[in-house]
Amino acid sequence: MSKKTIMLVCSAGMSTSLLVTKMQTAAEHQGLDTDIFAVSASEADARLADKDVNVLLLGPQVRFMKADFEKRLAPKGIPLDVINMADYGLMNGEKVLAHALKLIGE
Question: Which whole-number Å values give the CA distances from 98 to 26, 105, 106, in the listed order?
Answer without folding.
Answer: 9, 10, 9
